[in-house]
Amino acid sequence: MISTLRLVSRLRTSSGCFVCRKRRKKCDESTPRCAGCVRNNFKCVWPAPESVGVKDASSTATITISPSPADSNSPFADDSSKVGRVRSPMYGLPWIRTSMDHYLSIYFRDRFMTGVFRPNAHPAFQDPGYLILVSAQMSTTMGAFLATAAMHASWANPKFRRPAIRYYNSVLAGLRKSIAEGAAKGGEDWLLLATNLLVLFEINKGWNTGHNPLGAAPHLDGLAHILKIRIGEESKKPQEFVHLQNKISAESFVLWSSFLSLFYSEIDRVGDTINWNDLNIYLDRDVFPDASISSNSPLLVLDWKLHGTIFEISRLSHKVPLETSSYVRGRELETELIRREKDVRFEIPNYASPGQTQDVLQQILLYILATQILVFKTLRPETRTCNPRIREIVTEAMAAISRIEIEAKTNCGPYFCWPLAILSCAVESKANISSLRDALKKVWLVSYCGEVQRVRNATEVFWQKVDVEKGEDDFNLLDILIYQGGMFKHPSMVTEWGKSLYDRNC
To answer: For the whole model, what pTM was predicted?
Structure first.
């Protein structure tokens, strides 16, 4: 039986999006976002196909939910896994066919998204409404949506790992088909969302160098191409606002490119695909003008140009020994980091009481200190952990870590992996190693992200290679930071059988 919720207000017409109907405005009926909603930066909510809808939090639209064929005596129509009976507004939407699909759609909203976005982010960034609407129209986007949720869930329940790979493979097949048939031009919303989700899938999977040497690299490169196309289109017809999906995708690209480049040199090529300065069309503008700067940054919080500096230094670290021009540029970046550190230390006393701002400033300081270690080693390849400057930076960084809260409400996810990975190659004492081990464990327990597990496994391998108490000279931990293939391609990570050690638990 179809159940219908009564309307709070009568709709003016029987066509157009719900937002235009409620506002009693004419709708040009262009999907997935009509011109009126684009102009006013509203969420464009449409009636879902076959009388099945998802209610927007701010609308009074009708919701009609039909019983799904999967809603039978069996908790799963395909009996693929016994995770329990789940009901959600997504029942009956296209591409959502099994109870596992429904479970994962709820998991994505309630468990996954809450760990991806920063706690300071505007609540609208976590609203999956637009993603669901686009996914309801494109099976490829829906597949990426479910694959990412399943991969993240698989760390707590391994039964989800095989379905995650199955969803993922179907997405790749769908993308190849769309490209071959000319259905994907490069700037579509569904393609942007699907590609960003594929990046998150690889990050949550754990990069398996034995079987998938490219990992997130092709997806980040694809995301760069898509953003480049969209930026080119928007430059022809400038908008007064930034669509939140453009903001999220641009910050996602900057965040993961800058962090993953340290681990895998394949990521370096995305810097040649798009000019990072062109991203300011999304990164320097606010989605919500009346909200704070930090509320308008769902992933980065800090100045996005610092991530540009991190990415540039990571690329330089893969070119050691440096040519003259690269060395000069490295010294310029080193000077810039010193200036940034002074600015942050000047701000910290202004927020003496514990709170979100103080925590963010400590995180920024940690990123800067870790980057200083990387650039110092890149410019001076002979440097060892006993170098006075390295010891000074490590001491300051460990103090910053002790002041940062790593808990569920922090929503830190894998954001701390990058600075902690660098510090793991710079510490000398067992006390510091123990502190880093505890910090990585906390990050893992609040994120269950594959990237975190990879860093944990890698650091244990590094520490086993050197006796930190005796200070043996046969293995220099800092050399790992400037390995041309990236940290996770370092020879110490490979067994005599040729398989990466950190793949054992991935």
So the answer is: 0.80
